[in-house]
## 1
Amino acid sequence: MEHEHGSTCSICGLVPLARGLRRADRVIARSAAMQELLKRAARFAPSEAPVMVRGETGTGKEVIARTLHANGPRAGKPFVAVNVAALPAELLESELFGHGKGAFTGAAASRRGLFEEANEGTLFLDEIGEMALPLQAKLLRALQDGEVRRVGENRSFAVDARIVCATHRDLASRVAAGQFREDLYFRLKVLTLNVPPLRERPEDVLPLALQFLGEEKRPLTGFTEAAKARLLAHSWPGNVRELQNAVKHGAALAQGALVDRDDLPEDLESSDRTPSAARGQDDADALQAADGRGAVREGTTLDRGGPSEHELRSLAEVEREHILRVLDACGGSQAEAARVLGIARNTLWRKLRGFAETEAGGTQGARS
Ligand SMILES: Nc1ncnc2c1ncn2[C@@H]1O[C@H](COP(=O)(O)OP(=O)(O)OP(=O)(O)O)[C@@H](O)[C@H]1O
């Protein structure tokens, strides 16, 4: 079953995230791992306790933080996000806590900080592990006292912001190394959510890619089978953000209604040679999918009196095409496709990797 938060979710019970939010904020979670994560998030959402979201860069930690906020009692109040790593310590301090008039050169008027802006809402502290130790002490004090003091002022303001933080680092080892305060660490990690890397949830790759494609201005309808195989074979070290950028790249270069393998960034694979016959196949698929009718292949020698290309195709090619079609029909879910094909998921995964490797090696599509 599709598990997107464009409508009320029967799997994890979260209310629609899409209401009032950009379409990009919809959470795609086809994999069991993400569905489990959302179930856990749904249990945390009504709580006031701080949440620490852990995961590699680009996995969707902020998306999860927004989901928590949008599904909790503070939903109608502000969600204020700050990237701790993006600002030098002094600037971050005045951003977080605000400053009084004349607190420093250029402070012509007093200004409230993000803590105050997030009052009654959620303050999302991204990359919390990068916070300098002196500021960690100030943050801890603000959390303990429930009030903040603007830089250069003596009075304090009561603040009530739910704290959600995120880190791609192993904070426990930073604590052990004396780089992160232990008391702050335990205060922030009352509840924890771990967002799995994209390579551990390949079922999410194609649904995410289609979602991102739908956000493009150009009217593109999907990906060729070769493009899908390539998306599925990549390990995505930059996770969902890397996939998002790859889709943008593909959408910009696409010539037909479908994004083809060669439209995707070259660095998705080390070797990138597509035999023309394979490319012709993809074009045919693209045309067929675009207009719903049969299509003439370009660059191939059909109807010349000899056996047709279909008759010359090897068993391996037919198998590949069938597997990719089933995968497509199952909306990219490898678990479902493996069930339909009657093979183990691992077997399917190995075969998909094999297709991509063969293509990268330039042998796919070769005719004997
Ligand atoms: N499950 C998902 N469904 C839909 N879009 C997603 C999902 N996960 C991530 N994205 C999109 O991918 C991009 C990166 O996500 P996000 O910024 O939440 O990652 P992050 O882990 O917070 O990154 P960083 O570590 O760099 O702070 C965003 O544009 C986000 O909308």
## 2
Amino acid sequence: MTKPKVLISDALSPAAVQIFKDRGIDVDFQPALGKDKDKLAEIIGNYDGLAIRSATKATAKILANAKNLKVIGRAGIGVDNVEIPAATARGIIVMNTPFGNSITTAEHAITLMLALARQIPQADASTQAGKWEKNRFMGIEITGKTLGVIGCGNIGAIVADRALGLKMKVVAFDPFLSPERAKDIGVEKVDLDELLKRADFITLHTPLTDKTRNILDATAINKTKKGVRIINCARGGLVDEAALRAALDSGHVAGAAFDVFVEEPAKENVLFGHPNVICTPHLGASTTEAQENVALQVAEQMSDYLLTGAISNAINFPSITAEEAPKLKPFIELAEKLGSFAGQLTESNIAKVQITYEGAVAEMKVKALTAAALSGLLRPMLGDVNVVSAPVVAKERGMIVDEVLRAAESDYESVITVTVTTDDMKRSVSGTVYADGAPRLVNIKGIRVDAEFGKSMIYITNEDKPGFIGKFASLLGDAKVNIATFHLGRNQQGGDAIALVEVDGPVPQEILTKVAALPQVKQAKALAF
Ligand SMILES: NC(=O)C1=CN([C@@H]2O[C@H](COP(=O)(O)OP(=O)(O)OC[C@H]3O[C@@H](n4cnc5c(N)ncnc54)[C@H](O)[C@@H]3O)[C@@H](O)[C@H]2O)C=CC1
Ligand SMILES: O=C(O)C(=O)COP(=O)(O)O
């Protein structure tokens, strides 16, 4: 295996460089490159992995050049700077480090809240300017005040915990927060209007999505208590900046502390210059500890994937541990080949695909196996589909995908069956993995076989009548097509039969036409694996 190559295009801790090197991966550390999108687009094709923070924008345009890219690792939490659908469509795994900087970011939110309450930056500037304005900076006490947390996930919950320690009351709006969890972390779960009405401070901790964009717009800000203070350490765009500025100007909002902005880097912003606004340049995650955490973690995760196939914290693929990866690998190959077998035989719209996992394989990560089966199935029809993109493509096409898990019902320890239902037929194909790790076909349309997946094969369905084999073999012999292996099966004497023949080299179309014209033959197809 050639050494994988990783590009670090953001200011990650150098700890990441060392991990990649120690794991035997070539690494280019270009911390400022993320800001130069043309240069990034020019060189991205050389790399198997890309490690980033928030300055690199992994857009569809850049990813179009990422011919070898297998993984994007975000040393941090938010992945809104990565076009996930574009990465998924190219089969690129996108992973983040969901916990490495959460404490640090929560601490930044608390810091900003306290700085707002006591106007620390303004008082500092005034004092150092020699003004000694003791009467100008009257603060407010935190104790007993209500903090409204919008988005109570990892960071929101840590913020709530610290705020409770400061003797605040915490109300939280988060539609996905269970009442049990709310009770556990000591917050009162409320709806957004209630939060807006009651909070003395509001802090945001949701990702930026279509639902959360402008969650604090002019209407929401109007519903807040007069004198509210707002902190945003999550994402620019959660608060309508112009509406907030207007509410600050009118005095309805007493202060705002922002770490993140609609446009970053924020060189200009409508909030800048207001006396009650405190800004930091997206420093939420910027502590030595957090940066070391996320850099080490992302480098390990990316190395694991590039070297062993283990996947953790991927946004667009199920997790696979380092122990699971080698066991799963032959079954991924089997699932993909079974899907491919069915896909190559299918000529009309697939309405439904059922994947049945029987025996030991049912205990494995079947989501990954299903993704592999779907990629095999769709590739003959759609070309550029892979394990990462296939589930999305299947969904987009309205295909029903069913997974069935059950105990072993046959002589094999593990069997995967792919059943495809099209508008006019239903077809099943089953396979297993032998002890040597090789995938085998064990059943086609209910007929038992025992065949390997050859590179080039002819699949024939015929009536079980004498004379077929001789005629078929001489047709191939006359055309100088060498038969490598030959497998036959039938459902009953004189009933439906199949032949699966591996040949050396591709199968010429005219041979297939002649085979299809033999009296007993119903169908003859060339298959390639
Ligand atoms: N300023 C900075 O440097 C940093 C910012 N962040 C940002 O902080 C945010 C939160 O991170 P985590 O807590 O780790 O994420 P998380 O996924 O643990 O929590 C997000 C919470 O938001 C909730 N949520 C989703 N949609 C919502 C909606 N419409 N209304 C209310 N709540 C909603 C979810 O249910 C979840 O509980 C992310 O956007 C992340 O990018 C994270 C790290 C550093
Ligand atoms: O982890 C996150 O979501 C962050 O926003 C941190 O961003 P950064 O890595 O400091 O550019």
